[in-house]
Amino acid sequence: MRKVSIVGAAVTKFGEHWSSSFRDLIAEAAVKAVDDAKMDGNEIQAIYGGCMASGRFIGQEHIGALIADQLGMNPLASTRCEAACASGSVALRAGYLAVASGMYDVVAVGGVEKMTEISTEEAAIALGGAGDQEWELFMGATFPALYALLARRHMHEYGTTEEQMAACSVKNHANAVHNPYAQFQRAITIGDVMESGYVATPLKLLDCSPITDGAAAVILCASEHARKHTDAPVEIAASGQASDSLALAQRSSLTELNATKVAARDAFRQANISAKDIQAAEVHDCFSIAEILAIEDLGFFKKGYGGKASIEGETALNSKISINTSGGLKGCGHPVGATGVKQVVEGTMQLRGEAGKRQVPNLTNFLTHNVGGSGATSVVHILKRG
Ligand code: COA
Description:
By secondary structure, the protein is α/β, with parallel strands linked by helices. The chain is 35% helix and 19% strand.
């Protein structure tokens, strides 16, 4: 396996894009990433694009071909990758493996979703397809409801409180204030979260990630050629992926996501480091309880202590470990197919020292964690300078 580096990275503003189409978002992220890599687009040999549900959101499928067509790059190989909200990360992994294997020297990886063209109710049904359609969605269990079940069980077993969950959203909005690409550049308080209306008890509006439009892209190349494109390459030191049952009812535990534990174990093994070597991470906080599960399952905090650590500020910017420096899915927004790639763009900016007021100093290892569905797919990448 060859070493693989990120030499270009870019993201569009996340939010509601009324004057940019799905194609516009792809073009903006891709052109900015190619510019960032200071290369001619013709050097790209293949494209991997993460997209979860464009058929439901905008009525368009066949996104691999659309991306190449929109970017004027026909006839190169362009492939859509789908794993629900982890679509962006499986695209990154596909691009990583293609370069690591020696098949290609330079590939582009993107992620995109345009979710605001349909109503919230229609979006809830589209997103619900990431769970078990027959045994969950058909019975009325939308994603807020599934994560509410996980929250209830964590509260029951470990005494986690609604205030502790709210602290994750408060911290993520605080980080998003410093991120010009974030959907919500505004601070909130625990009181604001507690007073926001219930979506699925115990989860309230401000415990939920929003519905978002956006795209992100990175350019990968064999590490041996990386310095041709940038003075600050970022190496993908590890890539881990695992799966689990689609339906929560078939899990042996509701207080952990086993796919995350396995993906993290494999990634830490590959990078030859452990959780304590990570100073900052983007984790999948589609709902506040998801961040608590993630920081426990990734090994940053002991099982059951994620809520306490969050409310005591141990995950804040430049504390014990800086979690969701971009604002996470909650503050930065969650265009489902783009999120995994955006997490890696944030890691790249952080490792290059380009994250402005949200910069974590003296960073050596950055972890990204992206979940599909309620934990049926989990993908972990570890990034380092090089
Ligand atoms: N966080 C903060 N503010 C939010 C928000 C969120 N998650 N969702 C909406 N808002 C704000 C909007 O900006 C808007 O503010 P404004 O009136 O100042 O413009 C207001 O709340 C109403 O927005 P609206 O779009 O009508 O909200 P909604 O009730 O239709 O949708 C949710 C709210 C929580 C149901 C929706 O965001 C949602 O479904 N989130 C979960 C998405 C999801 O499941 N993703 C996959 C995870 S696995």
